Amino acid sequence: MTTLDELRQQIAVCTRCELHRGATNPVPGEGNPQARILLIGEAPGFHEDAQGKPFVGTSGKFLTELLQSAGLSRDDVFITNVVKHRPPGNRDPLPDEIYACSHFLKQQVEIINPDVIVTLGRFSMAAYFPGERISRIHGKAKEVDGRLIVPMYHPAAALHNGALRPEIEADFQKLPRLLAEREATRAKSDPIVRQQSLF
Ligand code: URA
């Protein structure tokens, strides 16, 4: 299987869409390669492009606070985006750009193999909940391929619209319980995991 390092190298030289042309750095994602929780944002912005790291600007600081409020640190999770290069002027990623980058995201999910995937905003939500509205389903987990997918508002949306802040905070507070439930289910259905936990 491809490794996260190999993916990082492939992303760095990827020309499958035009986004690489205007980008300073690729932003493949970072965090714990064995994370039980994978967070998927939208696209790198100005600061992410400058540093080659996801969620390091204002919404990234808020995301770190949200994780901390749920008893998690950034070292516990892996954070990536739907597209790995910054769209010019922070515009929305286009459908063909999302499609061109989707095989990287798919492989990241396979390699990290998280129990819980948190989608941040409507672009990553659309990968798992096509046609849904975030205002209707945020915080409601659904099982897909043996993982819990939890759609959440994008932290930037909550920063722009203060009314969403308590909603995103409450959704993050659910994460420890959802993770514990998912791990318990997995331990029951996977005898190898159960056996490992005996030693
Ligand atoms: N917003 C995102 O969706 N991703 C980032 O990495 C930064 C801001």
Description:
- The chain has 199 residues and is of the alpha/beta class.
- The chain has one domain (4-185): 3-Layer(aba) Sandwich (Uracil-DNA Glycosylase, subunit E).
- It has helices at residues 4-12, 19-22, 46-51, 58-69, 95-112, 122-128, 134-137, 155-160, 165-173, 175-189, 191-196; strands spanning 30-31, 37-41, 77-81, 116-120, 142-144, 147-152.
- The chain has a 6-stranded mixed beta sheet, with helices on both faces.
- Strand 5 and strand 6 form a beta hairpin.
- The radius of gyration is 16 Å and the shape is globular.
- The two termini are 27 Å apart.
What labels would you give this structure?
48% helix, globular, 199 residues, binds uracil, alpha/beta, 6 strands, six-stranded mixed β-sheet
Mean pLDDT: 94
Instruction: Indicate the proportion of strand residues.
Output: 5-15%
Structural class: alpha/beta
CATH class: Alpha Beta
Apparent shape: globular
H/E element sequence: HHEEHHEHEHHEEHHHH
CATH-assigned homologous superfamily: Uracil-DNA glycosylase-like domain
Total discrete domains:
1
Strand runs, count: 6
Strands of the widest sheet, in order across it, are 1-3-2-4-6-5
- The CATH architecture would be 3-Layer(aba) Sandwich
Task: Give the radius of gyration.
Answer: 16 Å
Report the biggest beta sheet as strand number plus sense, adding barrel if it closes: 6 strands, mixed
The stretches of 5 or more residues where confidence is low (pLDDT under 50) are 193-199
Distance between the termini: 27 Å
Q: The CATH topology, please? A: Uracil-DNA Glycosylase, subunit E
Total of DSSP H or I helical runs spanning 4+ residues: 11
- The share of residues in helices is 40-55%
